[in-house]
Amino acid sequence: MALRHFLTLRDLSTAELNRVIARAQELKKLQHENKLYQPFTGKVLGMIFEKSSTRTRVSFEAGMSQFGGSAIFLSPRDTQLGRGEPIEDSARVISSMLDIVMIRTFGHDIVERFASYSKVPVINALTDDHHPCQLLADVQTFVEHRGSIEGKTVAWIGDGNNMCNSYIEAAHMWGFKLKIAAPKGYEPKPEFLSEFAHCAELVESAEDAAVNADLIVTDVWASMGQEEEQKIREAAFADYQVNERLMSLAHPDCLFMHCLPAHRGEEISETMLDHLNAVVWDEAENRLHAQKALMEFLILENLKPN
Ligand code: CP
Ligand code: NVA
Fold it and tell me: What tens digit of pLDDT does each residue of 220-265 get?
């Protein structure tokens, strides 16, 4: 049986994704009841971070500790990865010592190359092109607040970035409709979008996307690695702020999510995170539960006899 990884949402079937989300809710309950559940004593997670992180690092590291295992934080600043050791060599060595690896990096090809040389499951913890772990948490959060996301309408307002791409794949996997409002020149890649024409469409304005939405989502205007474009992007994205006025165009029970960190006064109004229908803190917490469920799935799946 081929080794299972999680590089994009499409690495799991819809049934498997739903299993992970249901399991995340069970693990959340155990955690909230202070019940110990330690199936992975002695197992070690490697965490390769080539970009900054708060939520991803804390959730993976805490999750593995709660499972009875441990995690090693690997930054290019103090490993040979930062001094040019090829990713393929690093993958062979690191995966010979650890049980599961997560990687946050720039090019998506880096996680693909690592995974193809790895002996253990690899999780994409954000690349320039995808952020599938965040979607597990987002869908879990939607399900907890509103039930199934199948058949719902989701509005993506802002950059056609890694989060937007993962929302496009999520629309396909979970069967919801995605309306994308992005400024000219910042849309998702047309060749990627055209694969998903059955579930994702570009609309003219933020308002068009928001009308009748069941969920409105946004993200920063300048992602990690694009810091020098901040000023140009502020001008380009000025009409794409999610605020109370935009929320009022959506269904009255429309939820608001943001993967965080958020920039108040830019992609969201100063008070948007305090909106009655904002569920961003649950969304952030669910990174822990969803990724624990994902690690459990991948470790157990890869232990199955061939
Ligand atoms: N949402 C998210 O991935 O946050 P971090 O960058 O803090 O990990
Ligand atoms: N699009 C953002 C997401 C951060 C979690 C970035 O890549 O920086």
Answer: 999 999 999 999 999 999 999 999 999 999 999 999 999 999 999 9
Domain with 264 in it: 134-284
- Among the atoms of ligand 1, which is closest to the Cα of residue 133? 3
The token pair that represents 118 in the structure block: 């790895």
Is pLDDT above 70 for 142? Answer: yes
Specify burial of residue 210 (Cβ count, 10 A radius: 0-12, 13-18, 19+): buried
pLDDT in tens, 41-65: 999 999 999 999 999 999 999 999 9
* Domain identity same for 256 and 291: no
For residue 36, being part of any structural domain is answered with: yes
Domain assignment of residue 2, yes or no: no
Residue 262: its H or E element: none
Which atom of ligand 2 lies at the shortest distance from residue 260's CA? 5
Q: Examine the residue annotation and report whether 104 is marked as an active-site residue of this protein.
A: yes
Cβ of 59 closer than 6 Å to ligand 1, yes or no, is no
Q: What percent of the chain has pLDDT over 70?
A: 100
One domain, residues 138 and 267: yes
Which of 5, 108, 130, 131 is labelled catalytic?
Answer: 131
Same domain, 159 and 66: no
Mean pLDDT of the chain: 97
User: Which residue owns the Cα nearest ligand 1 atom 4?
Assistant: 55
> Residue 261 C-alpha to ligand 1 middle, in angstroms?
7
233 and 187 assigned to the same domain: yes
The CATH number assigned to the domain holding 84 equals 3.40.50.1370
Same domain, 163 and 88: no
CA of 134 to the centre of ligand 2 (A): 10
Candidates 303, 293, 305; CA nearest to 120 is 303
Tell me the CA distances in angstroms from 200 to 177, 181, 294, one per residue in order.
6, 11, 26
230: annotated active-site residue? no
Decide: 135 in ligand 1 pocket, CB within 6 A: no
